[in-house]
């Protein structure tokens, strides 16, 4: 399995995986997804197996307890104090291959190397169970998460 930087040629695959993984959510536009990548290309990557893209990760520096809204186009963030994990999305072809654990390990290394004390995310579609097993803890915040599905939970992983 190869975790490598995103290239322009990868975006059709990323969009297809987004559609596969999030049937309950209106897909985010290419421009919005690319804004996350452009804000922090070193923390965004695709996951390849046998020269096929089976997943992707979009993460970027952000502000703790203030997750970006869905469909929010990003720019560079000054004074970021968390690595925000927008998405690790894996196609069905990735199941049982350890891709999620490898992706999270890569993000933890990035966060440590860049002196972030934590990684934050909003879990949807029941993913809070998975993230809880990875060490993320649900945290109540004042920001309105109504743009996300009803089960959205803000979660933090402390490094």
Give descriptors for this structure.
4 helices; alpha+beta; globular; seven-stranded mixed beta sheet; 159 residues
Order of helices and strands: EHHEEEHEHEE
The helicity comes to 25-40%
| Low-confidence region ranges | none
Number of strands: 7
Widest sheet, order of strands:
1-2-3-4-5-7-6
Shape: globular
Q: How much is the radius of gyration in Å?
A: 14 Å
- What class would the helix/strand composition place it in? alpha+beta
Q: Count the helices. How many?
A: 4
Give your account of this protein's structure.
With 159 residues, the chain is α+β, with helices and mostly antiparallel strands. The protein has helices at residues 11-21, 30-39, 99-113, 128-133; strands at 2-5, 45-49, 52-62, 82-90, 118-123, 137-138, 153-158. Strands 1-2-3-4-5-7-6 form a seven-stranded mixed beta sheet, with helices on both faces. The chain is globular and about 40 Å long. 33% of the residues are buried. The model has no long low-confidence stretch (mean pLDDT 95).
